[in-house]
Amino acid sequence: MSEWSVTEPRKLTFDDPVTALHVRVVNGTVNVVGTDEGPPRLEVSDIEGPPLTVTQKDGTLTVAYDDLPWKGFLKWLDRKGWRRKALISLTVPARTRVEVGVIGATAVVSGLDGSTEVKGVSGDTTLVGLSGPVRATTISGNVEAQAVTGELRLSSVSGDLTVIEGSCPTVKADSVSGSIILDLDPTNSPTDLGLTSVSGEIAIRLPQPADAEVEANTASGTITNAFDDLRVSGPWGAHKITGRLGEGKGRLRATTISGSIALLRRPPSEDESPASPTSPAPAPAPSDTSNSSNTSNTSNTWNSSPPSDLEDPKPAGTGSGENASDGTTDKKVL
């Protein structure tokens, strides 16, 4: 086993293979990038407080504080221990299994094929271009997943959960008071969506053509539905959307107690849109007195929140550089 104690900004390069990465930090930033170019690398650009311990053993690279274990990570509430900060960047092989724990720190994980798990207390998490299984748990930080294609599981207490351009076979998301927003890309296989919230809003934008059995419920919130094939029903206060889109091969289940639910239609991509004419259409002859109708197409974009003017929604309410491969076990102070 090789071990280092990092007390100042430093760079490390690892010649031994890395198959698993464990990171646990308080405050600051963690940036993990998966790539198959060059050896694994670590850069600590800033550090305050106690040293970070870096170890490499049996293919597992660990960058963490000695007093911050992975087990029980989300219950670590020693505020005195929060007086520290580290800005670190890691480059590892794309197939690496990654575990990241952050308290008050921002985490960005991208380009990985292996499994990824992120736990956060109050820091925001961004997941980009991950194709392996992904699990992210946060207390008050927000989680945003962009262009994720692997199985996705998200959980929060008060943080918002957002999926942009997702093409995951499975998305499971639950929150107490945070909102859940999904913007899905078309996929070649059925998608299983399961969303649960207590008081947070749920908004789902489905690609065209949509293909799923749908059941969405809210006990006291409002519902907005943009699909003619789905039926909105329910007694006073409670509302439900049910029905089948396409062949119903996929599944969509969404439940909230007091939050609103919006089921929206994603406009066709540019490749699917009708081609614009290269020359203006000829004007009608002066003698033509027949009636004509004007048609306008509205194109909507959605960044991190659902738009309010999607096509024909049918609301049921009004809601919304040191070599690390020497194999030594000596501890080095940098």
Question: In words, what does this structure look like?
Answer:
This protein has 334 residues and is an all-beta fold. The protein has no helices and 27 strands. The protein has strands spanning 2-6, 10-13, 20-34, 41-48, 52-57, 60-64, 85-92, 97-110, 116-120, 125-128, 134-138, 143-146, 152-156, 161-166, 170-175, 180-184, 192-197, 202-206, 212-218, 223-225, 230-233, 239-245, 250-256, 261-265, 314-315, 322-323, 331-333. The protein has a 27-stranded mixed β-sheet that branches. The protein is elongated and about 65 Å long. 35% of the residues are buried. Mean pLDDT is 82; it is low at 272-322 and 324-334.
Largest sheet: 27 strands, mixed
Tally the beta strands. Answer: 27
Number of helices: 0
Q: Structural class of the helix and strand makeup?
A: mainly beta
Taken together, the total number of domains comes to: 2
Whole-angstrom Rg: 25 Å
Q: Spans of 5+ residues with little confidence (pLDDT < 50)?
A: 272-322, 324-334
Strand content: over 45%
State the shape. elongated
Mean pLDDT metric:
82
| Percentage of residues assigned to helices | under 10%
User: Which H/E pattern describes the elements?
Assistant: EEEEEEEEEEEEEEEEEEEEEEEEEEE
